[in-house]
Amino acid sequence: MIEIKNIKKTFNGKEVLAGISGRFEDSNTSLIIGGSGTGKSVLLKCIVGLIKPDSGGVYYDGRDFINGDRTIRTQIRREIGMLFQGSALFDSKTVEENVMFPLDMLTDMPKNEKLDRVNFCLKRVGLENVNKRMPSEISGGMMKRVGIARAIVMNPKYLFVDEPNSGLDPLTAVTIDELIAEITDEYKITTIVVTHDMNSVMGIGEYVMFLYKGRKLWEGDSQNIVETNVPELKEFLFANKFIKHMKENEANG
Amino acid sequence: MLTLIGHLGRYLEFIGSLFRNREKFNVYIARIVDECILIGIDSIFIVVIVSSFIGAVTAVQTAYNLVSPLIPTYVIGLIVRDMTVLELAPTITCVVLSGKVGSNIAGGLGTMRITEQIDALEVMGINAASYLVLPKIVASIIVFPMLVILAGFLSIFGGYLSGTLTGVITPNEYIYGIRADFNQYNVTFALIKSVVFAFLISTISSFQGFYTRGGALEVGKSSTNAVTNSCIAVLLFDFILAQLLL
């Protein structure tokens, strides 16, 4: 379980996060949603330690990540996997080397065991026979899959995903969403996904946190989200014509 | 002025961060070998071209300026040698390398930054600065002196070819000139300069690239800044080292 308490962050005097708190439960796919510039990615970067918040705390199963000692922070980092918006694969390495990289850097496993683990992870995300290809030689959807394989290769307890569907066609986006949800369930991972894609919200969101101008305006499960009375969330949700249409049809019986 | 001091402070802090929480030793060995190839082997062509022509031009221009019949012709060889060893080989080669290597380092790191590859390393708990930059510095310190030695040899050889082919000096006079009044310390001085310049170019370029913010435009700006700042630093330290060591 990941708990965040009163996270605040300001850039050049502009308040980006105004005291965000929340709990992300084990084996759940939790979503942080909101429009562009609402602080979703900044919050995610605060949670994984890429940005230090001005105040507040992040607790991984009760362990203080922000103010805890270096040993605890290092230990937590080894339990984190992350898929970045642009996949963030290393250009100069092959698919296999990319997925093997955390094992090379952080473990003393023998080469053949590492290779087995890499092949297992690539197979798990639906990729085979691409080991020797460079990132520039595969499609955007395949890059996301390789990113997921790299994120899970160390058996993480926590998985973070930043805009998994950006730049993907709707069908591939759904496949990636389903893959994230399956992996979360299968390996009992605590997963946090930052997105503004309503298909992801309706498809895989077990817990949803809505941010607006750096503030948390709503939280709950995706089944209740369309019943919201929060005007900003309504505006965000029903900007998607499909959901608006669905809601109107429901209202008309 | 305050901005300059701020930048200098961040630069020193960046260099300090390279040595904290380092990775396993064997990780660096492979990376250093890769960087030696990237920085060294890939720079040989430009070094060969620049140094050969600089030596050739120096020989011809020295001959053109030797108008007094009282000055022996072998002095052309002596001047080419001393100019090459003291200044042309270490300084001009490193100014050229600050363009070739500096822009490559800053562009590479800048691209890694804007495509979140550096963030990916940091999320894994890897000291990205140390993992990416330290091998570049070590590789530069290893290969720059080698490139300077190569440049020195080719510059003197270029002077020999141009001098003898144009008929301004005979081969024997040139050989006599480059051996006359030779001071070994000049070579030591050139190598010290190449090590200092290697450190400056690799660290300044890495600093510019590592802290790139924004998109492709900013990567270009970082590369330009890396080359400009490296050149200024090389010339400034060229003067300081000459004052201190000669």
TrEMBL record, chain A:
Residue span(s) of domain ABC transporter: 2-238
Gene Ontology molecular function: ATP binding
Pfam families: ABC_tran
InterPro entries linked: AAA+_ATPase (IPR003593), ABC_transporter-like_ATP-bd (IPR003439), ABC_transporter-like_CS (IPR017871), P-loop_NTPase (IPR027417)
Keyword tags: ATP-binding, Nucleotide-binding, Transport
Record keyword Transcription present: no
Name of this protein: ATP-binding cassette domain-containing protein
Organism encoding this protein: Rhodocytophaga aerolata
